[in-house]
Amino acid sequence: MTAMAENWVDERDKAILETIYYCENCNMVLEPSDTDIERHKKELPHHKMRRVFIVRCGHCGNIVTDSHAQYSPERNQFWCKNCISETGVQSFHTV
């Protein structure tokens, strides 16, 4: 196993620029320091909260959410879905 493969989780975590929260019921974005997060957890437990990662595409440099990106442990990079579809999945997963 290579050193890259051993620490791919750490490398992936370094590529995450920001973490935000999204309440699907309120259609509201909350930052980690926002007091509404705790209110949602305590007072509105039925609301569906999602953690959203903001990442930079390692290929084109655009900033996207994790739902519009994929991580390649081979490259230690997130790529947006547009770049993956343009270059192909095989190219994305090979160095």
List the helices and strands and how they pair.
Blueprint: H1 3-6, H2 8-14, E1 16-23, E2 28-30, H3 36-43, E3 49-56, E4 63-65, E5 69-72, E6 77-80, H4 81-87, H5 89-92
Antiparallel strand pairs: 1-2, 1-3, 3-4, 5-6
Strand content: 25-35%
Domains (count): 1
The tally of helices reads 5
Order of helices and strands: HHEEHEEEEHH
- The backbone outline, from C-alpha atoms, is elongated
Spans of 5+ residues with little confidence (pLDDT < 50)? none
Helix content bin: 25-40%
First-to-last CA distance:
16 Å
Main beta sheet strand tally, sense and closure: 4 strands, antiparallel
Q: How do the strands of the widest beta sheet line up side by side?
A: 2-1-3-4
Average pLDDT across residues? 87
DSSP E strands, number: 6
Supply the key terms:
single chain; 95 residues; alpha+beta; 4-stranded antiparallel β-sheet; two-stranded antiparallel sheet; 5 helices
Protein model, in words:
The chain is 32% helix and 32% strand. The protein has 95 residues and is an alpha+beta fold. It is built from five helices and six strands; from the N terminus they run ααββαββββαα. The protein has one domain (3-92).
Short précis:
The protein has five helices and six strands; from the N terminus they run H-H-E-E-H-E-E-E-E-H-H. It has 95 residues and is an alpha+beta fold.
